[in-house]
Structure formats: structure tokens, C-alpha cells
Amino acid sequence: MVDVPVDRSAGAVDGVRALARGKLLEAGLELFGVYGYAQTSEQALCENAGVPEEVLREEFGSREGLLMALHNQITTSGLRASEVALLSEGMDDCPLEQRFRRLFDAYVSAVTRDLREARVTFVEVLGVSPAVDAHCKRWRELWTDFLTGEAERAAVRGEVEERDHRVVVMVMVGTVHELMAHHARRPRRARPDEVSEELTKLGLAMLGVELVV
Hints:
By secondary structure, this protein is mainly α. It is built from nine helices and no strands. It has helices at residues 10-34, 42-49, 53-60, 63-86, 96-112, 115-124, 130-156, 166-185, 192-206. Helix 7 (130-156) crosses helix 8 (166-185).
């Protein structure tokens, strides 16, 4: 019998870990996104991913850690899509309403493309634990910074009143998440353009801008 050499190099080990991590993330998306976080055990996650339970603990610490990692992944996708939209050609020449619409079109498309992702991001993270609440709060603060910057640029262009917009934007971010959670729970899936239109109207109204009918 010939001994087959086992590649124990750092690159090979990293590849195995990345594969296991990816399988756990996909298992979390499927089980949390279809059956719910509360109804999913760590054993079920590991069986679905085909990895031992110690791998879950090594990579994420717990199913709670896996939930936050999934939330990070999905929310980062939404933020990056919004950034790309705002940096797209001709965006600076658009009226504020169009810029908001393009921003929310990109965001909604990114986070609702997969219904499981929408449920994980806007429903399953709610009320899990203080740690998950703190994690979501950090993301809301990041979105508040991002959108406050856009409001300040709109003020420089004379499109909105020049004042401190941060408190209004904080409320807007919380309301956006509530609306997204509402749509994620609905039995009839709203079209992305319907959700985007709602968010655009909300954002402009909270900044004191009248929609052009």
C-alpha cells in the first residue's frame, strides 16, 4: 500500500477552514432563513453543513456568532451596493429624489434577492440576545453615518435645509429596518420597486423634501 502524502501546509489548512466556514454559512442561511433562528439547533446546523460541532465553535463560537456573521455578510452587500450606486456616472447631476431612489433600488435589490437573506437580516436577528442587539446597533450607526453624509451633501447643494440631520437620519434608519422587517414577514412578497418607492418617500419626507408627483 502506498502512503499518500497529506498536504498540511498553511494554504491547505486555510482552504479547508474556508470550505467549512462557507458550508456553515450556507447551512445558517437555509435553516435560519426557512425555519427560523429559534427553531434551529447547533446540531442541526452542523449536520446540514456536514461538519463536526467543534468546527462551528472554532469558526463562529456558537450559532449566535454564525447568525451575526450572516447578518454582516448580507448587510455589507447592501451597503456596498448603495455605495456603488452613489458613485455611478451622472449621480451628482441627479435631483435628490432620483439619488435616493437609486440608492434604495440598489440596497433593496441586494438584500432581498434571496428571501432567506431578507428574513435573517430583518427578522431573525430581532430579540435574540444583548450581543446580537449590540451588533445590529453598530450597523445602524454605520448606516446613520453613511446617510448623514448624503444629507449633508444635499444641504451643500441647497436641496435640503442646512442643519444637523443626524437625529432625523437615526430615526429614518430605524424606520427603514422596521419597514424591511414588515415586508420580510409578509406572506405576499412585495416587488423590490414597491419597497424602494416606500423607502424613498420615507427618506425624503423625513428630510423635509416634497416629492414631485
